[in-house]
């Protein structure tokens, strides 16, 4: 074997459960850090139609993990609230009709507190799933988790 041999996904530590779970936790915690200075009112304003309230971004990134990881790969997964799939979908028509972007700032529910509870629920479910899914599922889902992590980083910007 030469030193320049390309590593398989199984050999690449970037795709290990520990690495992906660590990245997931780090990125989710950084999102929380970014919004810590905000007052409750700051989470719900939508200054223009083509932007979304901070509350929506926090829930949407959780919805992404719920929809494309937990619902798809974890048997018997139960969503915290069935309406979240409608409210926090952005433009993924294959998962259903999304709520109007221009009206996201009009949503008084879920509350900011409930959105943080939703994030915590999804965080716990994803961590449990990473540590318990079998290797065949892991092969399919690890890339989706990486995409979700990158997706959350985009929303941090």
Question: In a nutshell, what does this entry contain?
Answer:
The chain has about 160 residues and is mainly α. It has a domain at about 60-155. It has helices spanning about 15-35, 55-75, 85, 110-130, 135-155.
Structure overview:
The structure is a single chain. This protein is mainly alpha-helical. It has a domain at 58-157. 55% of the residues lie in helices and 0% in strands. Mean pLDDT is 90; it is low at 1-9.
Secondary structure: number of strands: 0
**Main sheet characteristics:** none
C-alpha Rg (nearest Å): 17 Å
* Global outline: globular
| Oligomer state of the chains in this structure | single chain
Percent helix range: 40-55%
What's the number of helices? 5
Question: Uncertain runs with pLDDT below 50, 5 residues or more?
Answer: 1-9
Q: What is the topology?
A:
Elements (H helix, E strand, L loop, with lengths): L16 H19 L18 H20 L10 H4 L24 H21 L2 H22 L1
Key terms for this structure?
157 residues; mainly alpha; 5 helices; 55% helix; 0% strand; disordered N terminus
């Amino acid at each position: 074997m030469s030193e320049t041999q390309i590593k398989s996904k199984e050999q690449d530590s970037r795709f290990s459960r520990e690495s992906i779970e660590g990245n997931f936790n780090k990125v989710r915690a950084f999102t929380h850090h970014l919004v810590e200075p905000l007052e409750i009112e700051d989470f719900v304003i939508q200054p223009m139609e083509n932007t979304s309230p901070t509350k929506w971004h926090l829930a949407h990134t959780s919805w992404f993990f719920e929809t494309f990881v937990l619902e798809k790969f974890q048997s018997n997964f139960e969503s915290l609230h069935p309406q979240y799939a409608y409210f926090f979908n952005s433009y993924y028509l294959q998962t259903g009709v999304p709520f109007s972007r221009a009206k996201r700032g009009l949503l008084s529910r879920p509350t900011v507190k409930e959105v943080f509870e939703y994030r915590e629920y999804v965080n716990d479910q994803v961590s449990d799933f990473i540590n318990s899914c079998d290797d065949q599922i892991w092969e399919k889902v690890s890339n989706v988790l990486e995409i979700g992590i990158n997706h959350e980083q985009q929303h941090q910007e």
